[in-house]
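Let us practice reading a record.
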Amino acid sequence: MVAELLKATDDLVGILIVGGGITGVLRALREVPSERRSGIKLVCRDIGPETRKGLSEGLITAALCHPLEATSALLVQTMIDVMGPQAPFATLQRSIPFEIVTPENI
């Protein structure tokens, strides 16, 4: 889809990837001239080997990631909390700040 988008438009300046498919997006960006891709900012979710590679190559501007340990710990604590005596009457909402990973801080 991104390869087609790159062919169809010449004024693309940003891409936000909120699902999977980062491998294909990076492949499409690698196939266009560096002058073209330098004007496109790519932001994605989560960090994995392919994302780290894209960051190190300068193809990804930023990755927005929820830290796995903090997410897991808060999930377990929330499950414990909803089993307590106030559970039927309480609505629990938890927030976990995401980390912003950029080429400069990988």
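A brief commentary: Helices lie at 2-8, 22-30, 34-37, 49-57, 68-82.
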